[in-house]
Design a protein that fits this description.
alpha/beta, 8-stranded parallel β-sheet, globular, binds 6-deoxy-beta-L-fructofuranose, binds manganese (II) ion, L-rhamnose_isomerase, metal-binding, isomerase activity
């Protein structure tokens, strides 16, 4: 173990006094306004976000990739990295695997490693956007939507294999993201492609264990630049409804055209009991996969406002599978993920501060100014001492980034794994 609890507590020492002062000040202020601080802090501790196995190495672009050294090059090392993130932040208690990048060679050993680090196996992701070595059929012109039934069957079988692998690890959820679509008008018949996708998803759904769910992710463009078969939440919801009760829509923040009202999408899906999963990231232009909260933190807060409302008022909607789906070109991936986890907790904490009763009353009176005051009052509160407290209570770091650097985690990883490591994944 590169870092243990004692190391983290040591690294906290010089921050304890400042933390206590700022926490007491904030807790006092918020308590006077009627907030239940210990309730908020325990909600923050309970909120766990899965780390995707493919975000632990430097992602790069089609123009180049710049390594960070010491990156994980196998599944065990990826789980170790998630373990590091979890011990520092106490928020990353799950990993999301991508098959075939992460097929375990020894299931028992992998499960024991994850257990020891308190890491659960969240959704498993299938991959029908790349041709696999030795595969008979090619996904060049699509997978579940392909005009060829042999290609569709191969893609269906792959998803069934992924369910089987996930089952052995204790996962309960399959995420399907398709690259299927077309690059030029006329290339595809929209109706045939959609119908093929529905039929293929139904075949996968038949193989889903009873206690599993299937999450259908949408995205407007890329890698196809004219049309995508599952391009938006409407297409995803239709497909999920076509499959059945265990199929849901998955919202990835980066998979919308600029200025889409994502909070409204989230609200309506929860009302219909069909929001199953969530991928966090941030973007300026498209699917940039940047650090959560680095570009549009207020939009993230508004989305969390709806998520909190849904969690409190929509029993028809299941617990969500939360995951970070980011990529790192110029930052140390672990530092970037720590920043993302912090941004998620911050938005969540701020949303928990919204006075829902007062907001309802202001809405009933059409007091638009008051509605805005309530939202922005919560947003402008510096909630970071609450996050620190949540981490401290469970043995984490007051400042995870500071501890990560103080404990020279990257330096230790490089010493252990060497410089020439290649992360598998995107
Ligand atoms: C593509 C994508 C998607 C993930 C998948 C692994 O956009 O990032 O969001 O779920 O690749
Ligand atoms: Mn995603
Ligand atoms: Mn994406």
């Amino acid at each position: 173990m590169i870092i243990n609890n004692d190391h983290i507590q040591d690294s906290n020492r010089n921050k304890l006094e400042e933390h206590s002062e700022s926490f007491d000040f904030l807790a006092n202020k918020l308590s006077k306004k009627g907030h239940n601080i210990s309730n908020i802090v325990s909600k923050l501790s309970e909120f766990q976000v899965a780390i995707p196995s493919w975000a632990l190495g430097a992602g790069g672009t089609r123009f180049g990739r710049f390594s960070f050294y010491g990156e994980p090059s196998n599944l065990e090392q990826k789980i170790e990295d998630v373990g590091i993130l979890h011990s520092l932040t106490q928020t990353a208690g799950a990993v999301s695997l991508h098959i075939p990048w992460d097929i375990p060679s020894d299931y028992k050993a992998i499960k024991e490693k994850a257990d020891a680090l308190h890491i659960k196996f969240d959704a498993v992701n299938s991959n029908t956007f790349q041709d696999q070595t030795d595969a008979k059929e090619s996904y060049k012109y699509g997978s579940l939507s392909n005009i060829s039934s042999a290609v569709r069957e191969q893609a269906i079988q792959h998803n069934l294999d992924v369910i089987n692998i996930g089952n052995k690890l204790g996962s309960k959820c399959l995420t399907v993201w398709l690259a299927d679509g077309s690059c030029f008008p006329g290339q595809n018949n929209f109706q045939t492609a959609f119908q093929n996708t529905q039929d293929s998803l139904k075949d996968i759904y038949k193989g889903l264990p009873n206690d599993w769910s299937m999450l259908i992710e949408y995205k407007p463009y890329e890698p196809n630049f004219y049309s995508t078969v599952i391009q938006d939440w409407g297409a995803s919801l239709m497909l999920a409804n076509g499959c059945g009760d265990k199929a849901y829509t998955l919202v990835d923040l980066g998979h919308h055209l600029p200025n889409s009202n994502i909070e409204q999408i989230v609200a309506i899906l929860q009302l219909k009991g069909k929001l199953g999963g969530f991928h966090f990231n941030d973007s300026k232009y498209g699917d940039d996969d940047l650090t959560v909260g680095s570009i549009k933190p207020y939009a993230l807060f508004l989305i969390f406002n709806e998520l909190v409302y849904g969690m409190q008022n929509n029993p028809q909607n299941p617990d969500l599978a939360w995951m970070i789906d980011a990529s790192h070109n110029v930052k140390d991936p672990l530092e970037d993920l720590i920043q993302s986890l912090e941004a998620i907790q911050e938005a969540y904490a701020k949303a928990l501060l919204i006075d829902q009763e007062a907001l309802k009353a202001a809405q009933a009176n059409n007091d638009v100014v008051k509605c805005q005051e309530i939202l922005q009052g919560a947003y402008r509160t510096d909630v970071r001492p609450l996050l620190e407290k949540a981490r401290l209570n469970t043995g984490g770091a007051i400042s995870p980034i500071d501890s990560y650097r103080r404990l020279d985690v990257r330096g230790q990883l490089i010493k252990e794994r060497g410089k020439n490591t290649i992360a598998t994944g995107l």
